[in-house]
Amino acid sequence: MKKRIILIFAGGIIIGVIMTITVSCLSWRSPALVVREPETPEEARIEYTPPPKPRFSVEFLSKYMPILKTLILPRIEKVTDDIYVALGYALGNVTMIITGEGVVIIDTTESKEAAEEVLKKFRKITDKPIRYIIYTHFHPDHILGTEVFYSEGVEVIATSEFVKWAQSPDRGMGSKYFRRVIATLGGEAEKGYGFSLPVESPYRGQFEDAEVVMPTITFQGKHSFTLGGKRFELFQTSGETEDHLAVWIPDERALHIGDLYYMSFPCLTGLMLEARPVIGWINSLTRFIGMRPDHLLLGHTKTLKGAGLIKEHLTNYREAIRFVYDETMRYIAAGRPVHQATAEIRLPDHLSDLPYLEGLYCRVDWAVRGLYHDYTGWYDGRGTDLISIPPEYRARELVGLSGGADKILARAIELQKNDEHQLCAGLCDVVIAANPGDRLAHIIKAHSMEHLAFGSNNLICIGTYRSAYSIHTKAAAEIE
Question: Which residue in 68, 87, 276, 336 has a CA-CA distance of 20 to 30 Å to 203?
Fold first, then answer.
C-alpha cells in the first residue's frame, strides 16, 4: 500500500513538471506579425553623365549574321517539285504543298502584310486553289496571316487543344497578359520609348487588332486526308505547346514539325509564359527520328535535307534536352538552390559546340530556372519569403543602411563605367524599389539595359533588354 502511494505521488510530481513546462511554452494569444514600413529615402542628387552609345560587336556580327540572314532575308525555298517554304518574310515560315487538286498551306505567319507578300510569290509558282490550311500550334507568329490565304470552303485544321489556347481569356492568345508578353519579348513594352536597332525585327505582327480564323476541323490523336492523290497524316505532338501537331507527307518523305526544332537551344520553358511539357518534347523527337524523313520542314529557320543529317540533328537536340532535364532534376533532388544549378549546369562539349544548340534564341540557364519553377513552386524552403512583405520595405532598409540613394547609385555608376551592367542594374533596382520616384535610378538603369542589349548574342535578350530600357525611360520622363 505504501509503495502504491509513493508511485502515485511520484507520478503526480512528473505530471506537474510536464504541465509546468507545457504552460511555460504557451501564450494566451498568437504573436502578431510585426511589419514596419521604413521611411522612403530621398531622391538621389548626384551628377551623372551617360556612357557612350553602344554598338554591336564585330564578333557578334561575324558569328551570328549568317543565321540572322536566314530570319530576315525574304526568299522562297524549293524543297521538292511540290513543296516550297517562304522564309524571312516574317518571324514564322509558310509552307506550301502542291497537289493535283489544289494547295495545302502550313502556318501563315503573324502578319497579313507578310502573308500577302508570300501569296504573291506562291502564285508565281502555281495558281491552283488553296484547299487546306494547317496550324501547327496557336502562337501568333503561325496563325495571324490566315485571312490572306483563306476563302469560303477552305478547311482549317488544328488539334482540339488549339481552340482552348487560342480563345482562353486568361492564358490564350487574345488575353491582355499574352499580348503584354509578346510586346515585352519583342522590345515594345512601352512604345515610343525604346531605342532603334540596326537590324529590323523579323516579327511583323499587329497583335492588337488581329483576329484568328478558327479551325473548321479539329482532332485528337491523329487525322489524315488525301488531296490530289497526295496523303497528309497529322498527329499530335508535345513540347513547344500543348496543342502542337506535326504533318507527315509520306509520298515526299517530308515531315513538318513546327517549332519542335529550330537553329538554337530550344525554349523548354517559355519566358513569362506557361510551363512546357519537356518530357513530351523528348518523346516527340524520338518519334520523328524513327520516321526517318528525307526533308524536315520547320516553323522557323531553314529546311533540313537528307535522312542522315536530319537524324543527327534531331538526336543531338533530344540529347541536349534530356541532359538539361536530368541534371536539373538531380540538382532539385539534392536540395541545391536554383542559382547554383543555373551557374553549374552546362551542355557537354560535344553538344555545346554545335551551332544549332547555341543560345541564339533560348538558353540553358533559362531552361533550368523554368524547370525549377515548374517542379518546386515559388517557395525556396529557407523561411524568409514564406510570408511575404512588400519588397520596398527591405529595399528601404538597405538604402538606409548604405547611407542613402546617392551612395548606392554612385557605386552603380562605377559599375556601369566598368561594363558591369548587370550589377549596376541590380543596385538601381534596390533604389527604385525603395523609391519609385527616383528619376536618376531609372535613367542609369535604362542605359545599362541598352548596353546589355547590344552586348547580347541572344534575340530574346535583345528584345527584353530593349523593353526594360523603354520602361525605365518612360518612368524617368514621367517623373520630370
Answer: 276
Q: 257-273 burial, b for 16+ CB within 10 Å, e for fewer?
A: bbbbbbbbbbbbbbbeb
- Identity at 306, one-letter amino acid code: G
Residue with the three cell numbers 555545346: 352
CB atoms within 10 A of CB 364: 22
- Three-state secondary-structure class, residue 94: strand
What's the number of CA atoms in the CB half-sphere (13 Å) around residue 318?
18
pLDDT digits (tens, 9 = 90+) for 237-249: 999 999 999 999 9
Chain centroid, CA 190 distance in Å: 19
- Maximum separation of any 2 CA atoms in the chain, in Å: 115
Instruction: With CA atoms as reference, report the closest residue to 338 among 300, 374, 384, 294.
Output: 374
User: Cα-Cα-Cα-Cα dihedral of 387, 389, 394, 396, to 10°?
Assistant: -170
Residue 1's contacts (CB-CB under 8 Å, 6 or more residues apart) are: none
380-422 per-position pLDDT tens digit: 888 998 998 999 999 999 999 999 999 999 999 999 999 999 9
Sign of CA dihedral 309, 310, 313, 315: negative
Q: Which residues contact 122 (CB under 8 A, 6 or more apart)?
A: 76, 84, 86, 96, 103
Give the 3-state secondary structure of residue 47. Answer: coil
> Can you tell me the distance from the alpha carbon of 98 to that of 131, in angstroms, rounded to the nearest whole number?
10
Distance CA 14, CA 107 (A): 79
Chain centroid to CA 70: 21
Q: Quick check: helix, strand or coil at residue 232?
A: strand
Total Cβ atoms within 10 A of residue 5: 9
Residue 298 · residue 305 · CB < 8 Å: no
CB neighbour list of residue 293: distance below 8 Å, 6 or more residues apart? 248, 253, 254, 255, 307, 310
Q: Give the pTM.
A: 0.90
Alpha-carbon torsion angle 465, 468, 469, 473, nearest 10: 180
CA separation for the pair 272, 177 (Å, rounded) = 9
Q: List the grid coordinates of 349.
A: 562539349
**CA-based R_g, the chain, Å:** 29
Cα angle value 93/97/98 (rounded, 5°): 145
